[in-house]
């Protein structure tokens, strides 16, 4: 799916701003059928939860409604008009005046509708978007709705981050010519000093397609014709971690004589390769060592609302720390983030929203009897169908990003439980079919060990989440280091695949200090990370470390959290804790390479 861009044949109107807003309980039925009767306005993009003081809105379970008037530019009379929602978390419905034009399930991927037949150039229409935040056993991520004694519906879920909802990303109106380019797929390779570019262009109707490749200065360096083909770039400048270089593939629909351009779209891309060889992760044939974080889209007031200022600042802080990569834990991030990573040479492990397919963790935290994770009553074929759709939409959206080097299809599933293999095998196959060029991974939960895990061999890289020194061996870093090493050694020896430490971290209250190894202090977080690093450096197969988490983030209520998860190396307002400085020292020194001489 193409990101809307303004080109010589396409125009783009951004619909962000203040929209009328109401929860379903505050308005009548068919709220789209007229002006939304509400005193409230909500900012778009932003999660709605923290905007208002009314807890009934924050805790609302079900539909909320956003509405605004939109004028179609008067010059669009010959064009098709598309409305695009970058994300409606978790389910969206779009109405143009009284007509339902789009419905979508999945809170972190875009959807759009051709609304040409409902609107007229120069005229206004009423755009109403319904957003539903409900999570069930058949949604990705999953959750459960219970009804309290006084009849209130309550949402619970199996991940700790707060279930922010609403229109957290942009909404767009854009025009395309009646015969237009619908999709572009690009796969690159390196052959000595040349780059190879295979492309495929999908059009809305049979059309003559011309393709030109421009370098970063805008000079044409290759050209081709036809809806699919390949071109060679001599003296190519590859896209490298820390040294991004982007080309553009300009696809054009041309008429018979090649003179008139019916539609044109410029797709940025980078020339790079990704390969797993033995226990190495290679980018452009060179071993790459991941340093960085598991992140969240999370800031005060906006919730998961995309914000360009935080985008720039977060990347600045990552660079300051020496991070060369991050994981989009635990859902696809805004496309602006992916584009920024492309332009700034930051490597991304791109994750679906499949977090919490694990009822053992729930049982562990609540003491409730454990239900089987994979069963007709819990996570079943319908869940897997939703999961497959989440994978499809992630790859469709992000396939052309050079920054994306691997797909992570789930975080901490109950991979040691019966049924895990049957659940995951078709999903891994699907991922490989959709994109044979990128490795596939999942992040393994601490209950899944090299002995009992049932799915590791399906994957190319093993991402491991561990909390030795925090949830286990709390306050005892010597034991934690030994456990960590033994655990990782087990995976390395059994599977012979690259290992990435995809989560390790300790909750830390900024300003709390101690001379002893005291959990929650800033010194403890730094010492915890150092102990973990000693273990990683002794194991050759470890090809990366992503600290949990980049910044403190909001969570659901729970006795395990004080105003959110405090495992951030930065506070929620992005101030460094002590550990940020020690990470900076290590990572800047590593410079994306595994420490030499210590592997065993
Ligand atoms: C892991 C989860 C992550 C949590 C983290 C924690 O993958 O989302 O935030 O634990 O407990 O299990 O801090």
From TrEMBL:
The UniProt GO MF terms for this protein read: beta-glucuronidase activity; carbohydrate binding
Annotated Glycosyl hydrolases family 2 sugar binding domain ranges read 14-177
Q: Which UniProt keywords apply?
A: Glycosidase, Hydrolase
Q: What EC number(s) is this enzyme filed under?
A: 3.2.1.31
List residues of the Glycoside hydrolase family 2 immunoglobulin-like beta-sandwich domain.
181-272
The domain of life for this entry's organism is Bacteria
Question: Which EC class, in a word?
Answer: hydrolase
UniProt xrefs under InterPro entries: Beta-gal/glucu_dom_sf, Galactose-bd-like_sf, GH, Glyco_hydro_2, Glyco_hydro_2_cat, Glyco_hydro_2_CS, Glyco_hydro_2_N, Ig-like_fold
What residues does the Glycoside hydrolase family 2 catalytic domain cover? Answer: 274-589
Q: Which SUPFAM superfamilies match?
A: (Trans)glycosidases, beta-Galactosidase/glucuronidase domain, Galactose-binding domain-like
Entry-linked Pfam families: Glyco_hydro_2 (PF00703), Glyco_hydro_2_C (PF02836), Glyco_hydro_2_N (PF02837)
GO biological process terms on file:
carbohydrate metabolic process; glucuronoside catabolic process
The UniProt entry's sequence similarity note says:
Belongs to the glycosyl hydrolase 2 family.
Q: What is this protein called?
A: Beta-glucuronidase
